[in-house]
Amino acid sequence: MRHLILLPDLGQTTSEATVLQWLKQTGEKVSRGEPLLVVQTDKVDMEVESFVEGYLREVLVSEGTIATALKPVAILTDAPQEAYERLTDGPLMVAATSVPSTGQPAAVETVREALIGAPATLVVPPATPEPAKARPDRNS
Hints:
The chain is mostly beta strands. 3% of the residues lie in helices and 42% in strands. The protein has 1 helix and 11 strands, in the order E-E-E-E-E-E-E-E-E-E-H-E. It has one helix at residues 113-116, and strands spanning 2-6, 16-22, 29-30, 35-40, 45-49, 54-59, 66-68, 72-77, 92-98, 105-111, 120-124. A 7-stranded mixed β-sheet has the order 3-6-8-1-11-10-9. Strand 9 and strand 10 form a beta hairpin. The longest helix has 4 residues, at 113-116.
C-alpha cells in the first residue's frame, strides 16, 4: 500500500518549513518513528519522523524547497518493489483515528481510490500537547 508522509502541523504561527536534508535515500527501509528528514522554520530546525513503516519510494519536496504543513513530502510503500500510483491532485477524505501502539490521537487521511486507482493513506503525526498549566494553590 502507498503511504503519503505529510509535513506535520508546525504550530499556530508557522505553516511552512524549508527541507534542509533527507536522512533516507529513495529505496531505503524506514521504520516507524525513525527520522526521515530535517526541516527548518523561522524558529527551529527539527527532524520529521515517519509514522508508518515502509520503503521510501519518492521524495516530493527536494532539499532547499519550502514545504507546506499538512501537505505530502514523501511516498512510502510496504514493499520495496511494490507498484504504486503517483500522487495526483484532488480532494481528500479525512477521518480521525488513533495510533494503536501509543493510543495518541493522529489524523489519517484516505485519498479517494477513484482519484488514484489504488488505496493509500496519508499519515499525520499527532500534535504535541501543550504542557499542563500550574494550578494556583488553594491552601495559600
